[in-house]
């Protein structure tokens, strides 16, 4: 059977469990229909390279990678600016469809590339598969992004082991996990592991976040447990708290951050848990409270774990959905699937606000689920003041609700 042309698959941003399941599904279903399937290494960097590194898929390779973690295609955070597009890549390979896998930035850039190609009289469809372990893309019906549940599952596994160590050793751990804009990952892990304290960006909706407030929240939990004769615990802090802190806080905290080209602190270069643990230990020393704590960083070990069944199913559906939307003649859209298994297109314009930006989906802290989970945390309140005075001169300064201005 003569080839119908090819499809080009590439990945942008960082890894997420399930990428290989998407690639595998897309490759197998298009191979079955007579297309060549090309995988492009290094994302947009490959598209703008004069000598791109390309992997041509056959069934054996596509089938072998399905359930693996990581990505068979090398990923890159490269974002095109003024580079010259390698149009020959598309012409020489008779590319009919470009399948991008990544976040909203990847989707937007892919749309711009196909729009440019169209001006050059080269029509190529583009369908995007949304990916982020942060779960912060505002998909319809609050459907999860692929990779989130697998990353959370791995985080829960490590979290439970850490909590068992805390109980066994009679000490505390200060843990940090990923989540640039939203606290979904930290919320899911802390709730599943019954951690006595979690700190996520969404909690600071009524007050400005500072290092001092984060430290007081953690110590509030430590003291609450101490007066209940529980001398261990885990406090989990989402890295997203760094992203909503005032510049003055970051500049005066004593940490020499490096910043990326978009002005974000490069948190991957520092241990967030170490920073918070050092600050907690310094405050405990000032207060004369003897509690031992150690840092645990939940970071890159979550991104390339094997996907769990939920994500394998979701990624398979999204991969099949790419073919469905392509056969319907759609382009410039994101493939989505709801809980009923129905595939539908979503266009960037459906997600963007009046300024053309996509607002991240946050943890709904006003939901009943969130309120019940926060009630299950351990922290000081007014009824604890008298007992807490054995450790704190001014226990009201460590009152959970007063710190967050919710009293």
Q: Provide the helix percentage.
A: 25-40%
SS-based structural class? alpha/beta
- DSSP E strands, number: 11
Q: Can you tell me the residue ranges where pLDDT is under 50 for at least 5 consecutive residues?
A: none
CATH classification, class level of the largest domain: Alpha Beta
The domain tally reads: 2
What's the story with the biggest beta sheet? 7 strands, mixed
**Tertiary shape:** elongated
Query: How large is the share of residues in beta strands?
Result: 5-15%
Radius of gyration: 24 Å
Instruction: Summarize model confidence as the mean pLDDT.
Output: 91
- Named CATH architecture of the largest domain: 3-Layer(aba) Sandwich
Q: Write out the strand line-up for the largest beta sheet, numbering strands in chain order.
A: 3-2-1-4-5-10-11
Distance between the termini: 71 Å
User: Do you know the CATH topology of the largest domain?
Assistant: Rossmann fold
**Treating each run of at least 4 consecutive H or I residues as one helix, how many helices?**
16
The arrangement of helices and strands along the chain is EHEHEHHEHEHEHEHEHHHEHEEHHHH
Structural description of this entry:
This protein is of the alpha/beta class. The protein has two domains: 6-146 and 307-351, Rossmann fold (3-Layer(aba) Sandwich); 151-303 and 377-403, Phosphofructokinase domain (Rossmann fold). The protein is 40% helix and 14% strand. The chain has helices spanning 19-32, 43-47, 59-65, 87-92, 104-119, 148-169, 184-193, 211-227, 240-243, 247-251, 272-287, 309-327, 348-351, 368-375, 385-388, 400-403, and strands at residues 6-11, 36-40, 54-56, 95-102, 125-130, 172-177, 197-199, 233-238, 293-298, 333-337, 343-347. Helix 1 (19-32) runs parallel beside helix 12 (309-327) and helix 6 (148-169) packs across helix 7 (184-193). The radius of gyration is 24 Å and the shape is elongated. The mean pLDDT is 91.
């Amino acid at each position: 059977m003569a080839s119908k042309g090819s499809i080009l698959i590439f990945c942008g941003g960082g890894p997420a469990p399930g990428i290989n399941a998407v690639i595998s599904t897309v490759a197998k279903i298009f191979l079955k229909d007579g297309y060549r399937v090309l995988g492009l290494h290094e994302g947009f960097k490959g598209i703008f390279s004069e000598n791109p590194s390309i992997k041509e898929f056959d069934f054996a390779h596509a089938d072998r990678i399905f359930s693996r973690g990581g990505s068979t295609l090398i990923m890159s955070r490269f974002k095109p600016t003024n580079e010259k597009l390698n149009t020959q890549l598309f012409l020489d390979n008779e590319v009919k469809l470009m399948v991008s896998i990544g976040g909203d930035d990847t989707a937007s850039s892919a749309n711009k590339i196909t729009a440019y190609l169209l001006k050059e009289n080269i029509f190529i469809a583009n369908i995007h598969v949304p990916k982020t372990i942060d779960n912060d893309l505002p998909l319809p019906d609050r459907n999860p992004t692929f990779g989130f549940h697998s990353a959370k599952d791995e985080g829960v596994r490590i979290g439970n082991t850490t909590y068992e160590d805390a109980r066994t050793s009679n000490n505390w751990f200060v843990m940090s996990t990923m989540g640039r804009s939203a606290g979904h990952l930290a919320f899911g892990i802390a709730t599943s592991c019954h951690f006595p304290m979690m700190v996520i960006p969404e909690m600071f909706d009524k007050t400005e976040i500072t290092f001092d407030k984060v430290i007081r929240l953690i110590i509030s939990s430590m003291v609450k447990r101490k007066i209940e004769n529980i001398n261990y615990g885990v406090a989990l802090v989402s890295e997203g708290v760094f992203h909503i802190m005032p510049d003055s806080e970051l500049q005066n905290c004593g940490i020499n951050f490096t910043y990326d080209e978009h002005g974000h602190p490069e948190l991957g270069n520092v241990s967030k848990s170490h920073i918070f643990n050092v600050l907690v230990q310094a405050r405990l020393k000032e207060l004369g409270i003897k509690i031992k704590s150690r840092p645990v960083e939940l970071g890159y070990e979550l991104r390339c774990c094997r996907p769990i069944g939920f994500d394998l199913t979701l990624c398979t559906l999204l991969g099949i959905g790419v073919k469905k939307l392509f056969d319907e003649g759609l382009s410039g859209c994101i493939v989505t699937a709801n809980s009923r298994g129905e595939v539908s297109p979503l266009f960037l314009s459906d997600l963007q606000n009046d300024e053309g930006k996509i607002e991240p989906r946050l943890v709904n802290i006003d939901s009943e689920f969130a309120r019940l989970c926060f009630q299950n945390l351990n922290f000081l309140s007014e009824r604890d003041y008298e007992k807490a005075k054995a450790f704190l001169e001014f226990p009201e300064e460590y009152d959970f609700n007063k710190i967050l201005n919710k009293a």
